[in-house]
Design goal:
By secondary structure, this protein is α+β, with helices and mostly antiparallel strands. 29% of the residues lie in helices and 19% in strands. Helix 1 packs antiparallel against helix 3, helix 4 packs antiparallel against helix 11 and helix 9 (262-274) packs across helix 12.
Length: 527
């Protein structure tokens, strides 16, 4: 999911732009920054902590109650940009007065880093929710999409424009397009069309100087980096040109819900290897395990009869029958899946709802599996962990197909391709702060520890869009710049061999480290 959830405040640090300049006080830096903004951006788009609408705007996109508490470090102000010029002005004011920006599109950063800071700092949030236009060009099978649009808004616009066009996105409709693509964008059709970021044709980014650059102006290195390397590290990506995929007028969805027993463990063991063999990229089956149940969610780019035929031939253990199938258009399939509906006539407009999540506390972690866990392994996972904690979940996205064997690991910063069977997202959730948090973190950490010998190693791979600060945080050196070595600790888990190239790009486009958070790419600055 970029599934999905995250919350509150964001970051602004002080920078000294001249070696002999004095460092301004926090108070004067903040005051001068706010004064600069008020001269350039309409007042109704600015919210300081004293504004009556500050908290409602701040929490409007919060997706995790963990970051909606009084202990959360909140921004000095929120800029709700409605024009690209406002983004440019915010960056220029921030750099001039030593205040950093954190950028929010949908608010699903799993550690809330798009609107909060871990440490006490002066910072501002640049909220892109007003920049949400989707302009579909059916004749050329492409679309320009603003970063503040959600996946649901993108799916709706594409579906309204053509019954045979689609985009390979994720299963959560409120995830922001900007965050989804900046993290690589795994999803339901990547086995056929690659990740979301693989399908970006062009982009417009505001760099650390406040300049607006397209692909030709930014160059291929920066264009490569923003498509999965964490866009917040290099600038503010305000819009993306996407390649749309051609799909049949009719696709098929199916869901199989099984109580866990010995046969379910055998089905999961078969499902693991089914991702790579046989080569059926038109078929995706994701698995969700929680408590004593496992749900298999199927999306097939074709008819029910063809799906049943392939399942009988290659995966009869799942027992998919015609009665399990629902045929519909791709857009309706996205509504059916993303809205968790049982109604095949679910209104497409439901994907347009932008909601927050202030009632559930969530912690996430991730893994990649390259060697099958096997039947005995799944029996142990259920017996020792899932069956004991109903508020613990594993969401597994199959790889293989195009994303695993056709696209090279270095095509974009997303490196988890060749040899990967599937990705795991671990989710622990609870509904009250305090002791419940300690228990839930114990559950997820216990399962994560149990899985160590069963998943990838050296490094133990992780997905940047399932951000996890437990695997490492940046340290800032005496020169005021994030150290390369501190970034490597977590960065090589997210990006593997692509991390050094990302740091090299960062060193060229933002050597002063203006765009920074606890897990931003550090600039590699050769001596």
């Amino acid at each position: 999911m970029a599934v999905s959830t995250t919350v509150l405040s964001s970051l602004l640090l002080l920078v000294c732009f001249c070696c002999d300049a004095f460092l301004p006080s926090l108070a004067s830096s903040e005051e001068n920054f706010l004064g600069c903004l008020s001269e350039k951006i309409p007042g109704e788009l600015l919210y300081t902590q004293s504004s009556s609408g500050f908290m409602s705007v701040l929490t409007a996109s919060v997706q995790n109650a963990r970051f909606a508490t009084n202990a959360t470090v909140r921004p000095a102000c929120i800029v709700t940009a409605s024009d690209v010029a406002h983004v440019q002005d915010a960056v220029r004011c921030g750099r001039r007065h030593g205040v950093r920006l954190r950028v929010r599109s949908g608010g699903h950063d799993y550690e809330g880093l798009s609107y909060r800071s871990v440490r006490a700092e002066v910072f501002a949030v640049l909220d892109l929710a007003r920049l949400r236009a989707v302009r579909v060009r059916p004749g050329e099978a492409s679309a320009w999409v603003d970063s503040g649009a959600t996946l649901g808004e993108l799916y709706y616009a594409v579906g309204m424009a053509s019954p045979t066009l689609a985009f390979p996105g994720g299963a959560c409709p409120t995830v922001g397009v900007g965050g989804f693509l900046s993290g690589g964008g795994i999803g339901l059709m990547m086995r056929k069309f690659g990740t979301g970021a693989d399908n970006v044709l062009d982009a417009r980014v505001v760099n650390a100087d406040g300049d607006l650059l397209d692909r030709a102006a930014m160059g291929e290195d920066l264009f490569w980096a923003i498509r999965g390397g964490g866009g917040e590290s290099f600038g503010v990506v305000v819009s993306w040109k996407l390649k749309l995929s051609v799909v049949p007028r009719t696709v098929t969805v199916a869901k199989t819900d099984r109580a866990f027993d010995e046969s379910t463990a055998a089905v999961l063991a078969k499902w693991e290897t089914f991702a790579l063999r046989p080569f059926i990229p038109d078929l995706t089956i994701r698995a969700v395990a929680q408590g004593n149940r496992t749900v298999f969610q199927t999306l097939f780019l074709g008819s029910c009869s063809r799906l049943v035929g392939k399942m009988d031939a290659f995966f009869p253990e799942l027992g998919t029958r015609a009665g399990d199938c629902r045929e519909m258009s791709w857009a309706r399939a996205m509504a059916f899946i993303t809205l968790s509906s049982s109604d095949i006539n679910v209104p497409l407009e439901g994907m347009l709802n932008r909601t927050n999540n202030l009632g559930t506390y969530v912690k996430n972690k991730s893994d990649y599996v390259r060697c099958a866990v096997g039947k005995a392994g799944w029996e142990s996972i259920y017996r020792e962990h899932l069956s004991r904690n109903g508020a613990l979940m594993m969401i597994m996205e199959p790889h293989g197909g195009v994303v695993g064997s056709v696209v090279p690991d270095s095509f974009t910063p997303y490196p988890h391709r060749s040899g990967v069977l599937y990705n795991i997202q671990y989710v622990a959730f609870w509904w009250a702060d305090g002791g419940a948090a300690e228990a839930a973190n114990g559950w997820i950490n216990g399962l994560y520890g149990f899985m160590e010998p069963l998943v990838s190693s050296n490094p133990r791979e992780a997905f940047v869009n399932y951000r996890d600060l437990d695997i490492g945080q940046n340290a800032v050196g005496d020169d005021g710049v994030t150290t390369y070595e501190s970034g490597r600790v977590w960065g090589e888990k997210y990006f593997m061999g692509n991390f050094h190239r990302l740091a090299t790009v960062k060193g060229k486009v933002d050597p002063g480290d203006y765009f920074r958070n606890e897990q931003s790419i550090p600039p590699f600055l050769p001596v």
